[in-house]
Inverse folding.
């Protein structure tokens, strides 16, 4: 199997774009609530916000499940 070269000093800031993303989501929500009543647009916007929240959480945790969410049996086996 081939080994990929990795520089341990490499700078990687994965979370750089998230504050601007959340700012845009907040502005879109504010505009939606100001200009429109609660309707299908709000439902679609809520779904989109939920998808962005999931993507942010996956980026933050690296796709790993927190230890507090795991069952006691999987903690013992190290899975």
């Amino acid at each position: 199997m081939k080994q990929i070269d990795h520089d341990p000093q490499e700078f990687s800031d994965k979370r750089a774009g998230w504050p601007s993303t959340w700012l845009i989501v907040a502005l879109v929500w504010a505009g939606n609530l100001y200009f429109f009543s609660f309707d299908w647009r709000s439902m679609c916007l809520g779904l989109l916000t939920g998808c962005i929240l999931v993507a942010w959480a996956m980026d933050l945790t690296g796709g790993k499940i927190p230890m507090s969410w795991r069952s006691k049996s999987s903690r013992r086996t190290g899975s």
In short: The first helix runs from residue 18 to 35. The two ends are 24 Å apart (CA to CA). Residues 21-59 form one domain. DSSP finds three helices and no strands in the chain.
